[in-house]
Amino acid sequence: MSKLKRVSISCKRSLWIPILLSVALFPFLTGCPTGPGASPSVTTPRRVPGQPPPGPAREGRPYDVVAHASLLTVLVFRGGPLAKAGHNHVIASHGLHGTLYVPADLARTTFEVAFPVADLTVDEASLRAKENEADFPPDVSDSAKEGTRKNMLGSALLDAEHYPEVELRSESVEAAPALGTEWRARVQVSVRGRASTVVVPLHYEQHADEIVIAGDFPLKQTDLGLTPFSALLGALQVVDEMRVRFRIVARAAPTRAGSLSDPGPRPGESATHGPPRAAPT
Description:
By secondary structure, this protein is α+β, with helices and mostly antiparallel strands. The protein has a domain at 57-252: Beta Barrel (Lipocalin). The chain contains three helices and 16 strands.
């Protein structure tokens, strides 16, 4: 009888091992974390609401970002030996807002753009359909999407409760050599209260009272001071390098006090006529 009890207890223990492992992995297999937590050691003070941030002086004609016509997407990739248990994800923001200030000398352009973290979407079917089907198959369950979004907005990652927006501010803009509509911008990106500077290639176009800025570039999470997610000794992880794409549409705004020391490009006038002067470095 004692021997049978020992066998029974041993069997129960062997059954509990895979069950406990499944419970431990469940949040990652059904809702793959889409980004890392921020490094707690380096932060910048949070800006007081309503207080303009320090930076280049605003000059030129103001153009307000049109949220419904603008889009930011971030492609996040799975990694590690257990990568097949997760998914690659398309994170998107349809809530871009802010203002571009565009003088006649485009190299003096400045901008302040932000988007609300809580409004980020995960794996919209229409956006996944635009990507390589092998890497972004359409069959991502609603539970996996919701699990990913919950992890992404939680305190370990973007911490939406305490840091409701990601802010993007220009530090400088310069023309790419020999390409009149191609530019490079040094952009201060503030995530979780920590500011990092990223060099962003962008394409600039103007159509009457509308400006379109677009770009597509790789960006490492560590460049933003974040640590890519990793679990089970690296067997399940998020790849450090992401792919960022954006298309920002902005339309001429009514004149605002203090914003028009230079009228900027006029409707129908090519803002890139002649070689633009590069911003000083």
